[in-house]
Amino acid sequence: MSVLLFTLIVLLGSLLAGLLGSLTGLGGGVIIIPLLTLVLGVDIHYAIGASIVSVIATSSGSAAAYVKEGITNIRIGMFLEIATTVGAVCGAIVAVYLNASYIAIIFGCILIFSAVMTLKKKVDHSTLDRSDKWAKFFNLNGTYPDKGITHEYAVKHIPAGFSMMLFAGTLSGLLGIGSGALKVIAMDNIMRLPFKVSTTTSNFMMGVTAAASAVVYLHRGQIDPGIAMPVCIGVLTGATLGSKLLLKVKTDKLKIVFAVVVTFLALQMIYKGISGL
Question: pLDDT of 182-201, one tens digit each?
Fold first, then answer.
């Protein structure tokens, strides 16, 4: 396969991954890594390195808009980034020494879990009930605008959410994905943040988390510009288109189709991992 054809396939595949990832909330990494490893035969460590760079790009591009709108809780984001950053560095270091087959199996299992979480109905937690004492200590409670009305919310279960974020960061560094499903569990299900706040704050955090693990992959020479550049351009373009289509497209059926595709790719990754790639 020529370099030009390889770059074109990666670019188009990444564009589609960014588009679908933006519409479904799973992110582009769940498509990019299987595309690079299963279809194009790229070493999984280099595929993860390229995916991490794309996570940084997409997070940086969209996070600024949410911060400007006042939806993102920056204090919670910066507090939880301590956990995700430490976890990401640990995960990236472990990935260097972990057998590629094991990484493929873990990746497949997380994909299946992410697909299930995508189909799960989201419950919006907008409450002023008793907040965690740690939330008061760190001043994490906040407000967000919605249709011209400012809503207040209280944050709960800080230690449990922090622990889950440490685990999410570790998987993010190990697998090169945003681990959005685990972050939703931490902020939405455990800390009881409103859905809009948890989603936008998670997006705000992803870039920092990915940047931390990218340092390890870059030091090891596992971020190849020839792969990372078309992946980054494709995902960023696709995510931008997806954010514009999100307001016009009904994503319920799309999420079902996407979950089926992701589950199929997950099973392929697990099979490849068991058979030794």
Answer: 776 788 778 888 877 887 78
Helix runs in 176-251, H state only: 180-184, 195-219, 225-245
Rounded to 5°, the CA angle 7-19-273 comes to 65
Residue 65 phi, psi dihedral angles, 5° rounding: -65, -45
Look at residue 246 in the predicted model and tell me its pLDDT: 61
- Angstrom distances, CA of residue 71 to CA of 5, 49, 146, 179, 201: 41, 30, 9, 21, 8
Query: And the tokens for 37?
Result: 């490893």
Nearest C-alpha neighbor of 168 from the set 86, 231, 236, 251:
86
Distance in angstroms (rounded) separating the CA atoms of residues 101 and 25: 27
Residues of the chain by 3-state class (helix, strand, coil), percent to 5: 75, 5, 20
Q: Which residue has the higher pLDDT, 77 or 1?
A: 77
Which two structure tokens, joined as six digits, stand for 171?
């998987």
Number of domains in the chain: 1
Which range of residues forms the domain containing residue 247?
Answer: 3-274
Query: Which amino acid makes up residue 157?
Result: H
What 3 state SS string does 62-122 have?
A: HHHHHHHHCCCCHHHHHHHHHHHHHHHHHHHHHHHHCCHHHHHHHHHHHHHHHHHHHHCCC
**Cα 5 from chain centroid (whole Å):** 28
State how far the Cα of 177 lies from the Cα of 215, in Å rounded to an integer: 15
Element (H, E) at 60: helix 44-69
Rounded Cα–Cα distance for residues 222 and 82 (Å): 25
Query: What DSSP character marks residue 262?
Result: H
SS3 for 176?
coil
Query: Coil, strand, or helix at residue 160?
Result: helix
